[in-house]
Specification:
Elements lengths: L2 H8 L2 H19 L8 H20 L17 H18 L4 H43 L1 H14 L7 E2 L5 E2 L2 H11 L1
Antiparallel strand pairs: 1-2
Helix pairs in contact: 2-3, 4-5, 5-6
């Protein structure tokens, strides 16, 4: 669920009014049960669930697809189909066939491979452009959200180098010590 969609919908006069009325009713229902041996946590959870329920009822919610990793915006159905086609061309190429068929199959595989590379490059470019548009909209609407996205991107790009440890388990940071450690192992 996206919070910004809810906030935008609450700006509409009718929905804001219905939201306020529904929350007042929920609060009045809850107020009657506060003194009945309920601790703060129970009251908070009750208020929270009422708030979520009323918000979903009046503003609706947006389902967000889970399971996709960040940075996979370029992975589309077309790219997936092209990769499947490339794999099939590779399998056909690996079979024992006459030399003439083998060269034809190799050419078909190379064409598929190049097509996939172009599609991925184009898809990543489109994904980057879309990310840039979203980021610029976030900056104009909500600067805190914008800087949170920038922070996430910076964290993703941190490179901590090759983590090579010495005999005692300490991480080696000096390049010469790392090389010496590799020589010991190999």
């Amino acid at each position: 669920m996206e919070r910004c969609d809810r906030q935008k919908r609450l700006r509409e006069e009718g929905k804001r009014k219905r939201f306020c009325e529904s929350m007042k009713k929920a609060w009045n229902r809850m107020k009657g049960t506060i003194g009945e041996d309920r601790d703060v946590e129970e009251v908070f959870e009750s208020l929270k669930s009422s708030l979520i329920e009323v918000t979903e009822d009046i503003c609706g919610y947006k389902k967000v697809k889970k399971g996709k990793k960040r940075g996979d915006a370029w992975w589309t159905r077309e790219v997936e189909d092209a990769i499947r086609e490339k794999k099939e061309a590779y399998r056909r190429n690996e079979r024992n066939v006459p030399a003439r068929s083998k060269t034809e199959r190799r050419r078909m595989y190379n064409n598929c491979k190049n097509k996939v590379k172009r599609m991925i490059r184009e898809s990543k470019r489109r994904g980057d452009e879309e990310f840039g548009r979203k980021l610029s909209c976030k900056f104009q609407e909500n600067k805190k959200l914008f800087w949170n996205e920038v922070k996430k991107e910076r964290e993703d790009q941190k490179y901590e180098g090759d983590r090579v440890r010495d005999k005692n388990g300490n991480i080696l940071k000096d390049d010469n010590l790392v090389r010496e450690r590799w020589k010991e192992c190999f």
